[in-house]
Specification:
This protein is mostly helical. It has a single domain (53-258), classed as Orthogonal Bundle (Helix Hairpins). Helix content is 87%, strand content 0%. The protein contains seven helices and no strands. The chain has helices at 3-14, 20-45, 56-95, 99-147, 157-255, 260-265, 270-290. Helix 2 runs antiparallel to helix 7 (270-290) and helix 3 (56-95) packs antiparallel against helix 5. The longest helix is centred in the last third of the chain and has 99 residues, at 157-255.
Length: 292
């Protein structure tokens, strides 16, 4: 709002053109811009306002807050470094197998391969034993049938001896297969026990890894908690610093034309000071036009 616009608005008001809501809205927007400009000016000149007596307390409070802000920022950086290392350690512990664990897994895989071969052989032995049993039962029936025939149809001694010899051989083969099956079962049981033992050893190694990883989790939790706390503290400090920047910017911009110390502090930012002076004037004129 310039002086010319104010004059034209006053004339329009005399003719009944009254825009109170528009004037209040413009005044509110300009006030918001003025506050932002005061904070901006205060942020860039606060280190030069020590000679301004009325701003001494604000200056030293800002010095203190700035020191605290830097200390908290350093703590956050340290926490983030600690957090990054803990994440790397956790990932390494959980995703990378140790050398003892790799050796145990290799040993376990070898035993599993052997057990698979034994299982195949056991199936072959069982199939061969069934075939021998079927042949034995057939010869046994044949022997009984031939022995029950009449004298004129009875086979000679050599025939019965041959059948008996075959039965004896089948018994021997069956016994050998049975013995082999028992031996294979013993080997499989031993292999299963070995696998169980190796699995327990691997589990123990995993427990150790997860125990170490849990320490990393604790570090991660503590670091995140510390970072959140420090950020909250920084937020409080930054809010207070913005308030003090606004106080300094407001005082210097209002008194730059009358106080040499303020003029010296605002040196190099005269353009911003003039804009702020214009905003104050416009806000005042808009409020006047909004009055009943």
């Amino acid at each position: 709002m310039t002086s010319t616009r104010y004059l034209l608005s006053r004339i329009a008001r005399a003719f009944g053109i009254y825009r109170r809501n528009q004037r209040m809205s413009e005044a509110a927007a300009e006030t918001h811009l003025l506050r932002e400009a005061e904070v901006q000016l205060g942020a860039v000149i606060w280190e030069r306002v020590e000679p301004v007596e009325s701003l001494a307390a604000d200056y030293w409070n800002l010095r203190k807050l700035t020191t605290e802000h830097k200390a908290l920022a350093a703590r956050i950086a340290e926490c983030q470094e600690r957090l990054g290392k803990a994440h790397e350690e956790r990932a390494e512990l959980l995703n990378v197998s140790s050398e003892p664990e790799l050796k145990l897994n290799e040993e376990k895989n070898e035993i599993v391969t052997q057990l698979n071969k034994l299982a195949v052989r056991r199936a072959e032995v069982v199939a061969a034993a069934k075939e021998i049993r079927r042949t034995y039962d057939g010869l046994k029936v044949k022997s009984e049938v031939l022995a029950s025939q009449g004298d004129e149809l009875k086979p000679g001694p050599s025939d019965l001896e041959q059948i008996q010899s075959s039965l004896t051989q089948l018994k021997t083969k069956f016994a050998a297969l049975k013995s082999e099956r028992s031996e294979i079962a013993t080997q499989i049981e031993a292999g299963d026990n070995q696998i169980s033992e190796i699995s327990e050893r691997i589990k123990e190694l995993k427990k150790d890894q997860y125990s170490l990883a849990s320490k990393a989790f604790q570090i991660i939790g503590d670091a995140n908690k510390d970072i959140s706390t420090h950020r909250a503290e920084i937020g409080v400090i930054e809010t207070r610093m913005i308030q003090l920047h606004g106080v300094i910017g407001r005082h210097v911009s209002r008194n730059a034309s009358t106080d040499p110390a303020c003029a010296e502090a605002a040196k190099g930012h005269q353009g911003l000071v003039e804009v702020m002076r214009a905003l104050r004037k416009s806000i005042t004129l808009n409020h006047k036009l909004a009055e009943n």
